[in-house]
Amino acid sequence: MLIIHAKDKEIYIKNGLISEPFLPDSDTREIDARGLLALPGLCDVHVHFRDPGFTHKEDILSGARAAASGGVTTCLCMPNTSPATDSPETVRYCLDKAKDAPIRVYPYGAATVGQKGEQLTDFTALKNAGAAAISDDGNPIQSAQVLLAALIASKNAGLVLAVHCEDANLVQNYAVNEGAVSRKLGLPGRPAVAEELQVDMSVRLAKHAGARVHICHVSTRGSVEIIRRAKAEGVAVTAETCPHYFTLTENAVLEKGSLARVNPPLRTQDDVEAIAEALRDGTIDCIATDHAPHNTEEKERPLPDAPSGMVGLETLLSLAYSELCQKRGFSVTQLQELLCYSPARIFGLPEPSLEPGSPADLCLFDTEKHWTLTEKDLYGKSKNTPFLGRKMTGRVEMTVCRGAVVFERQK
Q1: Which of 6, 83, 260, 342 is the most buried (most CB within 10 A)?
Q2: How far apart, in Å, do the first and last CA atoms of the chain sit?
Q3: What is the Cα–Cα distance from 208 to 230, expressed in whole angstroms?
Q4: CB within 8 A of 232, min separation 6: which ones?
């Protein structure tokens, strides 16, 4: 049993649930957190834990530890593993391994066999095995015919289809946004229109099918405008973005090199402003990390040859609080909606709450802490982030999941 004396409330925990107040006994741990804000556990609906197949970069247990250190108590793992999570057997493997994780970990099921964008998987079988949603993220579906079939199949199975929107023919394996930085580096770029074409196709097909669609990692003003218009027309579209899309521009590539390489790429300041405003007005429904670990050797390759992606679980709440609350005037209530409530609601997961009877998943956050990110603050296997050395305000000091303390920052 736990009693947490937080800044804004007292929280009682018994048998893994938030409880009505009780008198402590010899088995009760009391935590003095009067200087800390208690928040529901964060829900990150877009992570890559690389398990199975690439566990030298991350695995379900190491990724879960990284998540716990950032206040995240629920993660949804993308299917671009080896093998892909395109079968009930691989879904069950992920869930069996997740039983030993400190947080709640759910797998996506792959939309197509081998994520080749050709033959649909059996969505119902994946759901029955425990898949929480469907996606081919990492290998976005290019065919309108296959995407339409996937939307219809996801509707029939009662699962959300999450789509990575980039036209493969326009982006190739290019490393940076098409614009001033790509020209300065003499490299071909990934144009904004490559994302926007796929976003437009996805929402149009969702409208045609009467199905839901979730747009992953939105990065451009044009994508925001398409999603805003689709919502106004009644299309069942939801969307996410990542902290790097409202904190960094393409100029970060000039300073950080391949550490700032990510798909879709970092864009312009105008895109950053559009993303932030879309978070404010609800056009973008939630924030996810797209946590994508790679080892040091891979990220030390020249920019055109390095893999895309950055880790983000450990910095999710701190970056969002620093950039949205401190700099842009978002309230903590708005932040909770974007990081806790909305993502859980979209994917039909238990909505976090600090009310009695709810699962005891929460974090304690020091809103006054000023700190600088170093490698020792990264708890996963990989350290690939352009935010190393960045000063932030607000840090997670403790995380509780299922009523147990799963992370406690050492003083």
Answers
A1: 260
A2: 23
A3: 12
A4: none
Residues pairing with 10 in the sheet? 5
Report the candidate in 277, 285, 273, 226 with the shortest Cα–Cα distance to residue 249.
273
How is residue 288 written in tokens?
């996810």
Task: Give the bridge partners for 46, in sequence order.
Answer: none
Q: Report CA dihedral (199, 203, 209, 214) to the nearest 10 degrees.
A: 80
CA distance 201 to 152: 15
Which tens digits make up the pLDDT trace of 379-394? 999 999 999 999 999 9
Helix axes 221-232, 269-281, angle to 10 degrees: 30
CA distance 133 to 154: 9
Identified catalytic residue from 44, 51, 59, 290: 290
- What digits encode the pLDDT tens for the residues 344-377? 999 999 889 999 999 999 999 999 999 999 999 9
Q: 382 in helix, strand or coil?
A: coil
Q: Are 71 and 313 in contact (CB under 8 A)?
A: no
Q: Which of 15, 68, 28, 144 is nearest to 363 (CA)?
A: 68
> Where do we find the tokens 């405008």?
225
Mean pLDDT, rounded, of the chain: 97
Which residues, including other chains, have CB under 8 Å from residue 270's CB and lie 6 or more apart?
221
Q: For residue 46, how many C-alpha atoms fall within 13 Å in the half-sphere facing its CB?
A: 31
Cα R_g (the chain), whole angstroms: 20
Which residues have C-beta within 8 Å of that of residue 392, sequence separation ≥ 6?
315, 318, 319, 321, 322, 370, 371, 372, 373
Query: Which two tokens mark 242?
Result: 């990542």
pTM: 0.97
Q: Do the Cβ atoms of 110 and 133 come closer than 8 Å?
A: no
**Contacts for 304 with CB less than 8 Å, ≥ 6 apart:** 173, 174, 175, 187
Lookup: tokens for 59: 């695995």
3-class DSSP state for residue 239? strand
Q: Does the active-site annotation cover 281?
A: no
> In 3-state terms, what secondary structure has residue 237?
strand
Q: What is the pLDDT of residue 55?
A: 98
Contacts of residue 327, defined as CB under 8 A and 6 or more positions apart, other chains included, come to none
Short-list 126, 122, 138, CA closest to 81: 138
Mean pLDDT of 323-330: 98
Tokens of residue 12, six digits? 């009682």
